[in-house]
Structures are given as C-alpha cells and as structure tokens.
Amino acid sequence: MRSFVLLTAALAVSAMPQAVCAAVSQEVASTEGREAASSLPPLYAAELERSRAFVDAMMAEGVVVPQPKDPGGGYTHEQHKRNFRALHQGGQLYRITGEAKYRDFLREMLLQYAALYPTLGEHPAKANQYSGRLFWQVLNDAMWLVHAVQGYRDIRDTLSAADRKRIDDDVFRRAANFLSQDQVITFDRIHNHATWATAGVGMTGYLLGDADMVERALMGSDKSGKTGFLRQADLLFSPDGYYTEGPYYQRFALLPFMVFADAIERNQPERKVFEHRDGILLKALRTTVQLSYQGYFFPFNDAIRDKSLRTAELYEGVAIAYGQTGDPALLSIADFQGRTVLTENGLALSRDLAAGKAQPFDFRSMLLSDGPEGTRGAVAILRQGEGPSHTVLIAKNSSQGMGHGHFDKLAWQLYDNGNEIVRDYGAARFLNIEAKRGGRYLPENTTWAKSTVAHNALVVDETSHFDGDAQFADTKWPEQLYFSDAPSLQVSSGVIDSAYPGVSIKRTMLMPMIPGLEAPLVIDLVNAQSEASHLYDLPLHYSGHIMEYDFDASVNVDVRPVLGNDNGYQHIWVDAEADLEAGKGALTWILDGRFYTYRFAGNGPLRAILGESGANDPEFNLRREPLIILRAQRNGEASFASLLEAHGSYDGAAEQTLDSRSLVSDLDHVSIGGFDIVRLTLKSGQRYAIAVSHNPDPEGAHSVTLNGETIAWTGFASVVALSGEDS
C-alpha cells in the first residue's frame, strides 16, 4: 500500500476496519504529516496542535500511573483524568500522524494500568456505595473507560499478541466487568452514571469482539431491555429532547450517548441508532444548545454555573451530529466553540466551516416537555429580540429531575442585556477543588441550594416543596396549562397542587411588548388557593445593586438578623423590612449599565423583606447574593402580581444617565370571574391592561367591566389599550 498524506488519513482511517486502520497509520510518515498540515482547515489544525502540545507534555513527564487514594481534585484523581485524556488524544494522534512515539507512550501507560488494575479494591476515599477502583466514585471509572478505550482502539492492532492480550484482559475486560457486574446497581440505573458505564462497556465490547458485552451494554445486565443504553435513551429524554436532570446534566450525559451511538452506527449500522425513537439523540443535541444564553447553560438543579457550550461533551456531540445531519446551523455553534475533535466528523465540520457554509443557529421560543412521554410538566423558553443580548424568560414547570433536582416548582429566570437578571443558584459545590470537601456537593447544597426559598418559587409556611422529600417529589410534577410564542405576547402558565397538602399554586408568566417601553416587560401572576390559613413567601433572587425602593423600610445596620431556622431560611440575612398595608411597592436596581424595576401588588397587606444569602455559613461556601421576599399571611386565596421592567442606561465613562427611573408609574391587579386583569399606567399617561382569561381557546371572547371601564379580548391573554385617564 502506498503512503497516504495526513488529510486523506484523517478522513478515511476512522471508518476502516481495525487491521487496515493500523496499516494506514504505520504508513503515514510524520514528515509527510507535517507537510500536509498546512492543507488542514484552521479549526482542525488548531485542535491537532492543541492535542500535540498536551500529549507531548505528558510524554515529557513520563508515564505516571499512581496508586489511587485521593477524592475529586486530589493529585491521584487528577492524574488518572489526565491519563485518560492522554490515552484518548494520543490514540488519535497516532492514527492521524503515524508517529510511533504516540503508540509507544500509550502502550507503556496501558501496561502499567495492566499491572495496577488487578490489585485494586474499593477506592480509599469512597463517598458511598458507588465506589470506583481508579476514582472515588464509579462514575469517574466509567469516564476513564469511555476515553481510554477509544485511544486503545487506535493502537491495539499494532501491538504484539502478548501485550494485546495482557491489556485486553487486565485492563479493559476487568474495567468492563467491574462496571457491568460488580457495580450492576449503577450499570442498571436510569441515570447519567449508567449512561457512561454502558457506553464504556459497549465500546469495549465492540473493540474486543465480545458480543455478550455489547448486548449487556445495550440491553442491561440481564439483556432484557428493561435497562441499558437504549432504555436510557427512551426514559431520560422527553419527546422534545429535554433531559430530565436539566441542562447541566444533559450536557454531561450527551458525550456517552453520542460517542457510543457513533460506535454503534459504525459497528452495527443495521440498528439505525440515530433513528431510534424518532431521532431522539440528535434532537437532544439541538435541545441542549437551545437551553443556553450567551453560550452558558440555564443553571437548573445541581448545575455548576461555569459550564457552557465550550465544553468537551459538546465538541464531540456537535461534530457527531453534523456528521449525521450536515446541518449548517451546527457549524455556527462550532464556530462559537472554537473547538472540534480529531475525528472524521470533526474534519468534515472544520472543512465546511472554513468553506463558509455556516448558518445561524435558530435560537427561539419553545416549550420543552418533560418526562419520557412528555407528560411530566415542561420548561418554557420565551425569547424576545435579536443578537447576543436578547431577552430570555425561562419558566421551569418541570419534574423534580431525580436526585439532582431542586424543590423549585413553577420557578423562573430572566436574562437580558447579556446578563442573568433573575437568578437561579445552581449547585453549592466547588467541583474538583479539594479544599472544599474534596470537590463534593457541600452540605449547603441541601440546606440552601435545593430549598424552595433559594429559588424564585412560592414558599408556604417556610417549608420547601414536598417537605424536602426528593423521593416523593419524583412522583409529582406541575401541569403545563398553556404556552404561546406569539411575538407580541408570549405566555407560559402552569399549576401544581401537590407541592403542599391542600394548596394549589398557579403561575402565569407573560412577556408582552408594550408601546412606549424600550424592552419587553415580564408580568408574573402567582395565585395560591387553600381553605386554610398559611404564610406565603414569594422570593425574587436578582443580580445588581439597589438604587431605590418606594416604601419606608426598617434597615438593619448594626446587627444583621437571620430570617429563620430551617428550609433555607437559616441562610438568609435580613437587611431591611417594610410593612406595606396597601400591598404595593417597587424596587429598582442596576446591573451592567441597565436599570431594572420590580413592581408588585398583592391581594392584601404585604411585608417586603430585603435580604442576602450567606448566613450560618461558617466555611464560606455560599455566594452572597441579594433577594427580595414578598410575605403575605392569608386565609384562603393569596395572589401576587408583579412586573419586571428593563429601562434606561448608565455610562460611567461618559457620566451619563438616561431613564434611571421606571417608565411605568403604577400597577394594579384585579382577579374577577376567574380572569386576571393587570392595569399599567405609563409616565406618558398611556394605560394598558394585560387581560388573562386562563382559557386556551384562541377564539374565546371575554370581557370584564371595572369601575365602568370595559375590557374586551379574545384568547388566553391579550394586551388591551385603555383610555389615557383612570376611570
């Protein structure tokens, strides 16, 4: 066989049988590879050099395979992570360049693992019964296998029979058997840990020609199909491609889903895995991208807020999805990422991106159902405006999200001007920072981050939803009542009657475009129905610095009291309080040169509490973030109506301020005949009503008369212009 240049090898090798792949790798001379590198598209060429730099640096240090002892973030943990990256990327470099030094490095490392692995028992830093061998939790062992087996695939047929047998038996068979037999409780879960485990075992089975191993991975340990990789694809995603644990874990789980599916497609194309369940994996990839703003994922549930589209899982996922679909919108995501992978898919993507074939990704308003049948609530994404600083409202009416879920039914977030304005806390965790309890979830993840008061959700009697019982919460979810993405008035409405015994909570979020206002408003209608008397707290967690509020408050300047004793309240410092007999008020803050006014009204007296997170936190684990709580004691119905308005600007360099005060001068809310009527008065004198019938019939005609003024509309909701003077 004649020599192949680098570009041809990169395109062809990954699709060839293993023996032919090895022959091609051996015949691609390193000098030829360097000469051909100039013909590579920039994204792929940069990735090649990045991998070279990393693996070459690892080689310069020599092979280091330490005895496992540390939890996440510790030396041995991080070294084994670096090793699996080196195995993965080193194999790719050998396949592409044919340089023997990469094969030899991988061979030596794998032989050292072959000496170590048979000696390993439970990890000494194990946190629970799901202990790994190389790592403190079995999940990381599965991640090691997923990456390492891909690198081994690229060199295996070039090794001697003796080396190959030893590595096969003492590394990969042992690792696969550990995951699928010794840790069957993890392997057979419907959970992202099991996705990683089944992917690693299945890819190992394909490489070793072990059909039984592949079948276990696809169909579960007993091969019944009740668990396993395919069953996870059926149960973990909704029909819209939403992953039940939320965007952060959707991103994480996508790598094993996509790389194993790619392996299935190459080895058993007759399974048509990318057509499985109406193309659910490709749908999930696109949905993952939709669940982001400015590239960062919406931080639902146990989310680390730093994660964005620029992450290894999505580099793989976008390349594989592009290889399957050729969707030019995915090229714009790859362009944003500035990264790809050293595979045939990555090369094809890079070439088409360099050829100018990218088209904008269609970020849009959408309703994403939750649950395998799409019946367990939903997540509503309402987008308004163009460009990277557009406005996005998220209504989280979804299910609990298993063990990583938070008690935040009918919660919401808002992004505007490139920032998160109404915040979700995410997880209380410093991932892989050993100083913070080994990088594990912190105690405050339970006492604060998961609690209802830590979110923008209604709290009853200072207790969390479902009384903080995650197992019970997994059996309940809100009902999505209505959704509309009409540009002038976007709406999401949901209800839940199981968060608290005897209390039904309905929340309707609207994003209307009001003439005379520079940005879309957010209207928030919260209604709780109960036959008993309850204390209702409606928190709003916001980003920014307070400018002013329009009520008289008692401010705590010497001593900072704590709001409560449990359910997250023990972590809230009280900075100011005000009793509002009329049940109305407004708060304005500034963030990044833009002003935001939160204006609210209740169906009776309210207490406004201005506070900050971080109390009772002796290890300084929590972020200090501001919040306002609207508190109401009600016997029967409790209702809250509020608006959030973005307005004006501040340019510190130019010392210029525009419209620092709200352009809305008054908000009034009335519930009448099952309808909600929110009346706004602008400073210009113009008046509008946001009328909500709660009837989804688009042809339904409705009208109410308030103080002699008739308000008529059709459909679920509408913006109605009123006369310029109050009636």
Automatic annotation (TrEMBL):
GO terms for cellular component: periplasmic space. Residues 1-22 form the signal peptide. One of its GO terms (molecular function) is lyase activity. Residues 376-630 form the Heparinase II/III-like C-terminal domain. Residues 90-288 form the Alginate lyase domain. Its main location: periplasm. It comes from the Bacteria. Residues 682-720 form the Exo-oligoalginate lyase C-terminal domain. The keyword Lyase applies. Keywords: Lyase, Periplasm, Signal. It is found in: Periplasm. This is Alginate lyase. The lineage of its organism: Bacteria, Pseudomonadati, Pseudomonadota, Alphaproteobacteria, Sphingomonadales.
